[in-house]
């Protein structure tokens, strides 16, 4: 049985990008694999959230994990800081992570540009912490979106380096994974490449957004005056609308609008209306469950305790073995 691990930073509500990148099909997967789904609260500290924000966001991600269909009796759902052994493994991995390679990571370079006054060491060593998350359960598969591909490559590098340094075959080489398909990138609504929490107002559709909000966001999505030549290549914002539609609508619906586009008869107003309704239908069960679960503090606490226990059983064992491999007193 493969060990599967997936993580999301608690920096706000989950959006469709998170869902398709890290969660899709997990209901089936959780029964066929040993699954760990965690909330990466250590990672979120790079942007210095207030204690209240941190706590609220951790709870929100947990609720949305459950609402999206994860079963805490089957999969292990836990909060990263409830497994503090992660920090110890992170320290060990940092000893074999080099400044040059860390500085070359695309997400680091992007973040450094975005927040020039807060280029902290945590940001630089982010890939080592992410590797610790994955390696602590000796995971084989890591469901992620396209944006995390390079981090997975780093994880393999760190795992291999550790194995070679200590002449062991201890850590497997984990692969980024999206259910047998290519890694996915869900685009934003603002014409930009990626749906993201910090990409600005109106870019992301959140799983918990109310129908009226979804309609408003989709109707405001960037489009253009429409094609003037038959069968022309779609400009990026239009390609993005189609990609979103492929994610949530039926194949017939997509084919219908493709045909209209190719014949230069497309009306983006109609397409957006359809897209909004399909997103609403797609997210409805999750939205309803979020409301129910958010009110059930006792259940949320119980899930966290259960997850913590299972995560420590697995991660604690790994770190104990790693300490012995490194040469600390048993
Ligand atoms: P985060 O919190 O930014 O995003 C969580 C997951 O959602 C995916 N994702 C997307 N997928 C497709 N299209 C999009 N527009 C989109 N936006 C986000 C991300 O690829 C990710 O899978 N570093 C991670 C959190 C993390 C982690 C880990 C993940 C920490 N440790 C260990 C896996 C394993 C992050 O910041 O994801």
Give your account of this protein's structure.
This protein is mostly helical. It has 2 domains: 3-176 and 297-326, Rossmann fold (3-Layer(aba) Sandwich), CATH 3.40.50; 197-291, Orthogonal Bundle (Tyrosyl-Transfer RNA Synthetase). The chain has 15 helices and 5 strands. The strands form 2 sheets. Strands 1-2-3 form a 3-stranded parallel beta sheet. It has a two-stranded parallel ribbon with strand order 4-5. Strand 4 (141-143), helix 10 (149-165) and strand 5 (175-177) form a beta-alpha-beta unit. Helix 5 runs parallel beside helix 15 (297-326). The longest helix is centred in the C-terminal third of the chain and has 30 residues, at 297-326. The two termini are 29 Å apart. The model has no long low-confidence stretch (mean pLDDT 95). Residues 5-9, 17-18, 20-22, 40, 43, 130, 133-134, 142, 144-145, 147-148, 184-186, 194-196 line the site of tryptophanyl-5'AMP (TYM).
């Amino acid at each position: 049985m493969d060990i599967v691990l997936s993580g999301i930073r608690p920096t706000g509500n989950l959006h469709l990008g998170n869902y398709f990148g890290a969660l899709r099909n997990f209901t089936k997967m959780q029964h066929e694999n040993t699954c760990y789904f965690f909330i990466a609260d250590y990672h979120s500290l790079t942007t210095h959230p207030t204690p209240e924000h941190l706590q609220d966001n951790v709870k929100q991600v947990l609720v949305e994990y459950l609402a999206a269909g994860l079963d805490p009796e089957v999969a292990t759902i836990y909060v990263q800081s409830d497994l503090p052994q992660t920090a110890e493994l992170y320290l060990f991995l940092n000893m074999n992570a080099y400044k040059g390679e860390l500085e070359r990571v695309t997400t680091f370079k992007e973040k450094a540009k975005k927040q020039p006054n807060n280029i902290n060491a945590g940001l630089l060593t982010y890939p080592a912490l992410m590797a610790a998350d994955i390696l602590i359960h000796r995971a084989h598969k890591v469901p992620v979106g396209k944006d995390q591909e390079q981090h997975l490559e780093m994880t393999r590098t760190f795992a291999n380096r550790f194995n070679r340094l200590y002449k062991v075959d201890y850590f497997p080489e984990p692969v980024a994974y999206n259910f047998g398909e290519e890694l996915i990138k869900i685009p934003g609504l603002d014409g930009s490449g990626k749906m993201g929490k910090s990409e600005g107002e109106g870019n992301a559709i959140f799983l918990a957004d109310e129908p009226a909000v979804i309609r408003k966001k989709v109707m405001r999505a960037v489009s253009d005056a429409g094609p003037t030549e038959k069968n022309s290549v779609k400009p990026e914002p239009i390609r993005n609308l189609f990609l979103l539609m492929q994610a949530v609508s039926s194949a017939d619906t997509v084919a219908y609008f493709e045909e209209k586009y190719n014949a230069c008869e497309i009306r983006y107003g109609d397409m957006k209306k359809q897209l909004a309704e399909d997103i609403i239908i797609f997210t409805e069960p999750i939205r309803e469950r979020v409301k129910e679960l958010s009110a059930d503090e006792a259940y949320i606490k119980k899930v966290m305790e259960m997850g913590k226990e299972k995560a420590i059983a697995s991660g604690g064992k790994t770190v104990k073995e790693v300490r012995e491999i490194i040469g600390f007193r048993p």
